[in-house]
Design goal:
By secondary structure, the chain is an alpha/beta fold. It is built from 14 helices and 29 strands. The chain is 27% helix and 26% strand.
């Protein structure tokens, strides 16, 4: 199984590469893109699979009630230009800045960043033009125009500089001639993030716009704390003092110290020695909290209409109780797709603890399977328990004769960088105990598919689910002779 990237909606050639490499199931993540993109992906998969005479299935994952950090105020719009220097401080690579007209979004190769300036000023530039400016610190700096094209202008700087929207760029001209200048009118703000270290405290608040009751704590006592909105404000009412909170796949952890009507005060207890950055749209896990959240959000119900139209299987995210499965089956019946295969994504502690009941509920459906969603599950149950937890899920699913999908971070380094780690090769080999292994997207995903296929075919001779096959070893045959 391979997660399709957004590009698969426009590039049928990319889908062909995945299928040629060995993709058996295409996964469409409904947490990203939209119905138009999903339809395009499905059309490409069906078309290419038919041409290749392959039966490639489509799984569509519902987003579910995922708890994430909301928008954090962006940092000031400051752009740092930094030339490359050798150990002696000599510049071997100048900083390259792209200049384009205001309101345009362009992609210029081999530049550190792009900024927007006044069009009439930009038209005066030519190769060799010199631009003077005082950066955000008041330091005098110069740019030299090295390229002019249809997309804009490229200028180089030999010294570090900081640009802001208040920076004035002046086109240098011979003495006595009129000087022409422009503001840096369009500069991207860096995404907002908080730097948090052990011992720091922050407020996890309801999203902006939700009704907020009066706070029982004095506002002055907490007003100076950094604040992070939570996308699902309902959890604020369901979390208790002393319960743990994990952010960003376990990179940052804390404990709830105070609960108020509109926020949780969290003390950071787990972070690297130098601290961690917490940005927007990062996952939040509450492993100690008993959360009453709907299995299907309003978005999921809308998405399910498209899922019923396109998919062979539907993934139920954050399933926690049997009623979640009953609700999904009722919706599929209403959409005339009771035959759709159900995949239970086990990614919370509550879901793991209720696994037998969930399996019994799923077995009422014509087709069902389980996904070991190891990303969230490791955070929820503890990384030290991950090996034990996935072993128990495999055993329970085998007893119920349900197929299992082994998911999250399989050959991730290979898919992203082109070079696997030793540990992930061994991890991929353990995936032979499941019926399916899922790969996530990445620039080297085709290589990852072929590598995974090779690993699983080799391991299939050694392992059948929990049973070791003890096949005859051939590695030292020549030596023995």
């Amino acid at each position: 199984m391979v997660t399709l990237p957004s590009e698969a909606a426009q590039d049928v050639g990319l889908v062909r590469q995945l299928i040629d490499a060995g993709m058996d199931i295409a996964r469409i993540n409904c947490a990203h893109d939209g119905p138009d993109e999903w339809r395009a992906m499905a059309v490409h998969v069906r078309k290419v699979a038919k041409q290749a005479r392959r039966n490639v299935r489509i799984l569509m994952d519902l987003a579910g009630p995922k708890i994430r950090t909301g928008d954090i105020e962006a940092s000031p719009a400051v752009l740092k230009l930094k030339p490359g220097k050798d150990p002696f401080g000599h510049v071997y690579q100048p900083a390259r800045l792209g200049l384009h007209g205001i309101g345009r979004t362009v992609s210029m190769p081999d530049v550190q960043a792009c900024v927007g300036v006044w069009d009439h000023w930009l038209e005066r530039l030519k190769v060799g033009s010199k631009i003077a400016f005082a950066d955000a610190r008041g330091a005098k700096r110069h740019l030299l125009v090295t390229h002019c094209g249809s997309q804009g202008v490229v200028a180089e700087c030999l010294r570090s500089a900081y640009l802001t929207p208040e920076t004035v760029l002046v086109l240098e001209r011979p003495q006595g001639k009129k000087q022409h200048s422009t503001l840096v009118c369009q500069i991207e703000r860096n995404p907002g993030a908080l730097h948090l270290a052990r011992g720091d405290r922050l407020l996890l608040t309801r999203p902006a716009g939700q009704d907020q009751q009066a706070d029982e704590f004095a506002p002055d006592s907490l007003g100076s704390l950094p604040q992070v909105p939570c996308t699902l404000g309902a959890v604020i009412d369901q979390v208790k003092v002393g319960e743990r909170v994990w952010f960003d796949d376990g990179r940052l952890g804390g404990v709830v110290r105070q609960v108020q009507a509109h926020a949780l005060e969290v003390e950071i207890t787990h972070a690297r020695a130098g601290g961690e950055k917490l940005a927007s749209d990062k996952g939040i896990n509450l492993p100690d909290s008993t959360l009453d959240l709907p299995a299907l959000t309003a978005k999921d119900l809308d998405d399910l209409i498209v899922v019923a139209e396109l998919a062979d299987l539907v993934g139920l995210s954050f399933v926690q109780q049997p009623q979640d499965i009953v609700t999904l089956r009722e919706q599929l019946t209403r959409l005339n797709r009771p035959d759709l295969g159900l995949i239970l994504k086990i990614e919370t502690r509550q879901g793991f603890e209720r696994l037998p009941d969930l399996i019994l509920a799923a077995m009422a459906a014509p087709q069902a399977g389980i996904m070991i969603a190891r990303g969230d599950l490791a955070v929820e149950c503890g990384f030290e328990r991950m090996a034990e937890v996935q072993e128990e899920i495999l055993c329970c699913a085998e007893a119920a004769h349900l197929p299992v999908i082994w998911a999250t971070q399989v050959l991730e380094t290979l898919a992203k960088t082109g070079l696997p780690s030793r540990a992930e090769i061994s991890d991929a080999g353990l995936g032979v105990r499941a019926e399916c292994v899922m790969l996530n997207k990445g620039p080297f995903i085709s290589d990852a598919i072929r590598t995974l296929d090779d690993i699983l075919q080799r391991m299939a001779g050694h392992q059948q689910k929990k049973r070791t096959l003890l096949r005859a070893l051939q590695a030292w045959q020549d030596c023995a002779a």
